Amino acid sequence: MSVINGYYPEDVFRYFEEICAIPHGSGNEKAIADYIERTARQAGLSVYRDSYNNVLVSKCAKAGFEDFPAVLLQGHTDMVCEKDPDSTHDFERDPLKLRLQDGFVSAVGTTLGADDGIAVAMMLAVLTDPTLEHGPVECLFTVDEERGMTGAQNFDYSRISARRVINLDSEAEGECVISCAGGADFTYRFANTYAHNVHPTAKITIGGLAGGHSGADIHLGLHNANACMARFLWEEYQNKPFQLISIDGGARHNVITSECTALISCDHIDRLKQHAADFERELRAHCRPADAGVRVRVDRKGVREQALSFRQSARILSAVLLAPAGVLCQAEDGMPLASSNLGVVRTDEDCVRLEYFFRFNVECYHREYAEKYRILADLLGCELITGGYNACWEKKEHSALARIYQDAFRKLYGGREARLCSMHAGVECGMIRQGLGPEADLISIGPDLFDIHTPRERGDLLSIGRTYGLLLKLIAAR
Q: What is the pTM of this model?
């Protein structure tokens, strides 16, 4: 039974509900690719699918529109899988449970995947509606955007004829994005060195933080649980050195971490609990309202025979405290130009990993900070693993597509002006432009979506409808 009833456009919301019934986290896109291919073939459309499960669907122009410029619509099929701590949802098996409230759609206890499921639904609606007026339309559904954009990186762009590109991965109605950040991964790997331990174990948990998107929210001053944990432990280490047993926080490098847990060997649990209470008060005194629920808890556990050495414990904490993180450079209007997010800290049997996702709107910042990460790795004696490079998308002067967007927006919104802007979050336009060549003209648009990459994610249903109406004007424009 449909949850989203009575909202325009019905086809978009029908497809979105069907998408939400298919598990499609990053790396698990085969089933959603099967669904897209099946839907397109049933509509008699041309389909190309590669080994990565990227899908390209082509639709001929409406009669009378054959000489209109071809347009490529693009969105990604994967979603960030985050859930509330008490949720039993299995992202590998379970459909999302949708709910409607006050004109917004969300999911119960989990991320909604409107980023970028709404784009997929809009593209399918365009492809399967025979009444629409438009020139040639191509729709590219890419995979694995949230983990590293590997789908867009590896697609064969020679299969695309369009040079006008509308990316549908933005989250603010009335904004037309004309450039975005690139990204790169920097991971510190500390090979584990163990020592004998005779003290009880203290489990420290820092949680209750808001979390958020490491591009769209990095400038909001939200606490990162991994960074908070390192600061708390370093303060404790200065009072009395201890052995770290494990430290774990975060599941995605592009998500501001909301909870982190550490185990340490400790013979002064009562003093540690007092420190935790003081630290919690300090965090609350200097936090944004969204982080007001922060909590710092200490629990006593049994003795672990082995723990990491004192030296390795200190090196790991030092790395978190010293490595570039947060907003690193800003433009005059306050938009970040370079930032880094410690999204994942993980203790494995053989190593401890610190995973940073670095964003840059200007290429020179990538070169500068890559060198800083390398120098710090040399000083601390750990391995630095780099990868996941995505090109930034630089602004195109005199974009015809941006001008068409502004004109269409002005007409549909009663003379209101749209805003052309750059974004610090990353979309796949950098790689698409590389693949299509410098003549490609790109914009990124989308409806109002809020708290993406968190279980509070929600989409404004009326905004989705208006954005779809605007999209139909764009694909029918010269």
A: 0.76
